[in-house]
Amino acid sequence: MRIVLLGAPGSGKGTQAQRLVERARIPQISTGDLLRAAVARGSELGRQAREAMDSGRLVDDSLVLGMIRERLGEADARKGFILDGFPRNLAQAHALERLLASLGKPLDAVVQLEVDYGELVRRIAGRRTCADCGRVFNVLTSPSPPRELCPKTGAPHRLIQRPDDNEATVAERLRVYDEKTRPLIDFYRARGLLRVINAEGDVDEVTRRLTQALGARSGRAAPATRATARRRARSSSARRKPTRPKPARARTKPAASASSRSRASAPRRGAHKTLRLAGATRRRRARSSKRR
Predict the structure, then answer these.
(1) Could you read off the pLDDT of 61-110 as tens digits, one per residue?
(2) Residue 173 known to be catalytic
(3) pTM for the whole thing?
(4) 2, 13, 19, 195: which one is catalytic?
(5) Catalytic pick from 69, 122, 173, 180?
(6) 127 is catalytic
(7) Lowest-pLDDT choice from 60-64, 185-189, 197-201
(8) Is 287 considered catalytic here?
(9) Residue 189 catalytic?
(10) What is the pLDDT of residue 75?
(11) Choosing from 71, 127, 135, 195, which is the catalytic residue?
């Protein structure tokens, strides 16, 4: 399954993406992680990205799309992927659509995680990230499990708070989201890909809603397919009816056979009657001769 998760900052995209990774065994593709990995490897794309970041410029969309193309070519992405944090605007959405079409990997679903903005402020203030593996936790809603170790270091998670994860910057981030990213809802709704879920409440309950939303498309298709099959069966049955032998014809055949047997036995019954008459005539003549 090929999925994009949409939602305002703090809506739980990272948490739910990690749960989908465990359930569906497909990778979570975060553009931030791709940028950091490309820079660390020193690849050509990473070098260009570093130059942009060092000069204070935004990384060009074409570079990000190039990294996504490379990532989708890896073996673990053959069954699908989860895009988290991309696209962020309509231009990126159009570019991603063209890229996936050229790869023959169109999206299966886009899920919008809806959360009240007051709740978002509370969540963002409680968000923490492991400095080593990048896993996201929240001290209020989804804290790091006791005694859980970082998969990269084998030591306890080193949790840090991102500089922009504070209430002072949340209002500006939500303003940018409303202006740039929220229009993607209508973009993907027009393509029949959008699913919207309530992302407030218990994390397990949100996961259940997400799983249900991702299965909704196939769930609706199945009854339609069965209905189509029933219509075809009825149509096929109606076409076959004129060729079936009528019941009256089926009964006529045995009747004709009985009549034939009756006609065949008629000569034999007549012969027996003639013999009986001849015998009676001979007996009368014999009695008459004796009297004389």
Answers:
(1) 998 999 999 999 999 999 999 998 899 999 999 999 999 999 999 999 99
(2) yes
(3) 0.63
(4) 13
(5) 173
(6) yes
(7) 60-64
(8) no
(9) no
(10) 94
(11) 127
